[in-house]
Design a protein that fits this description.
The chain has about 270 residues and is of the alpha+beta class. The chain is built from 4 helices and 18 strands.
């Protein structure tokens, strides 16, 4: 008889889907291999990544983000919102609490399914850069919103080949050795942008990327294309709200707000561990 041993929850925010596991007892051993198996679409549960909740001495808990290829990410805006809702609903955390991530301490506020998280202040900002890729010169901005992001402004966003161009930029020499996530952004009006993202670690376009939406909003504000708070339309259909506070051209505070929800819960077969 097949043994089922590890409880899990499938969660989603803006079309970004995650398998969430309470790992405070250290049940998960080989985290990289575990994530590869669990995230596989046909042989596992299927997800963009795994979110592990672990013990912390610095905050209410620690969150680890493991991409579908087994690599560990420092930050994930949509993952932050999912783990915050999980902590509120399943661990009885209060409406406002703090948790540890590789990007630093994240403050979360949960009201029903709506979650607002304060993200790390962006760093490594380079606004006017260019590179050669696929025979074309592309102009981009670069910044780190917990993880690295390139931001490219385009017209005709639905027709952009995000997978091909995104992969070429993600692996470009300008971003070695760690690579970068790549965001294609269309300005809709002075309050709204649309974003499509090629995610490092997933190695494909995802339906949304919280840190990528944040990076795109920050660059859009700094270039004067939009005003904060910025409404970000994602391919997953949700509109995220990014609130950006500045002191001149210096970013002092960034929050990401949107809905997260549970999809299902169950127990994994022992073979996935």
């Amino acid at each position: 008889m097949m043994r089922f041993s590890l409880p899990f929850y499938k969660m989603v925010a803006s079309g970004n889907d995650f398998v969430v596991v309470d790992n405070r007892k250290g049940i998960v051993g080989d985290i990289k291999e575990f994530a590869r198996k669990v995230c596989a679409g046909h042989t596992g549960i299927g997800a963009d990544g795994v979110l592990l909740l672990e013990n912390s001495r610095r905050a209410d808990f620690k969150m680890r983000i493991i991409n579908s290829d087994g690599s560990e990410a420092e930050a994930c805006g949509n993952g932050f919102r999912c783990i915050a809702l999980f902590a509120k609903e399943k661990l009885s955390c209060p409406s406002e609490f703090r948790f540890e991530s590789l990007a630093g301490i994240i403050t979360a506020h949960v009201k029903a399914q709506r979650v607002c998280v304060e993200l790390p202040v962006p760093s490594e900002l380079e606004l006017d850069q260019s590179l050669e890729a696929l025979g074309h010169r592309l102009h981009y901005a670069f910044l780190n919103t917990g993880v690295p992001h390139a931001v490219i402004f385009v017209e005709g966003l639905p027709k952009i080949d995000v997978e091909e161009i995104g992969r070429a930029v993600r692996h470009h020499g300008n971003f070695k050795p760690r690579g970068t996530n790549v965001n294609f952004v269309q300005v809709e009006n002075d309050k709204t942008i649309s974003v499509r993202t090629y995610e490092r670690g997933v190695e494909n376009e995802t339906l949304a990327c919280g840190t990528g939406s944040t990076a795109s909003a920050v660059v859009s504000v700094l270039k004067g294309y939009v005003r904060s708070p910025v409404q970000v339309k994602t391919r997953g259909g949700e509109i995220l709200e990014i609130n950006i506070q500045c002191d001149g051209k210096k970013i002092t505070r960034v929050t990401l707000e949107g809905e997260a929800r549970f999809v299902c819960e169950g127990k994994m077969a022992a073979g996935l561990l």
